[in-house]
Design a protein that fits this description.
The protein is of the alpha+beta class and 119 residues long. The chain is 20% helix and 20% strand. The protein has a domain of 82 residues: Glutaredoxin, CATH 3.40.30.10.
Length: 119
């Protein structure tokens, strides 16, 4: 006759970890620019590099030129350009500037947490 042996979990044994929140599958980003100025081109180039490095295959970028379509600035309440708007995942986020400070962009997009030590 076969017997099965069961063991009780000791109090020192690690409990199962809670699952990490799911990583969003689709990132929808909108970059507002004003023509093909050096600052606008730099912002797009920086954004493309950040996306390829951190969101490869999981993002879409829509570029809105406010010189051609100024009325579109009202929808996302754009006050300065270039401005990056993260539409998805929610909640919406905005980052103003040419996106050259990669660390600031990653924190702004919630791809990296801010260093709370301030250093």
């Amino acid at each position: 006759m076969a017997t099965t042996k069961t063991t009780a979990r000791s109090k020192t044994q690690a409990r199962p970890r809670k699952p990490k929140p799911p990583v969003p599958k689709a990132w929808k980003l909108r970059l507002y620019v004003a023509g093909q100025t050096p600052k606008s081109l730099t912002a797009f180039s920086n954004l493309k590099k950040i996306c390829e490095d951190h969101l490869k295959g999981r993002y879409s970028i829509e570029v809105v030129d406010l010189v051609e379509q100024p009325q579109l600035s009202k929808g996302d309440q754009i006050l300065a350009i270039p401005t990056l708007v993260r539409k998805l995942p929610q909640p919406m986020r905005k980052i103003i500037g040419d996106l050259s400070d990669t660390e600031r962009v990653l924190v702004g997009l919630d791809l990296r947490t801010a260093d709370i030590r301030g250093g």
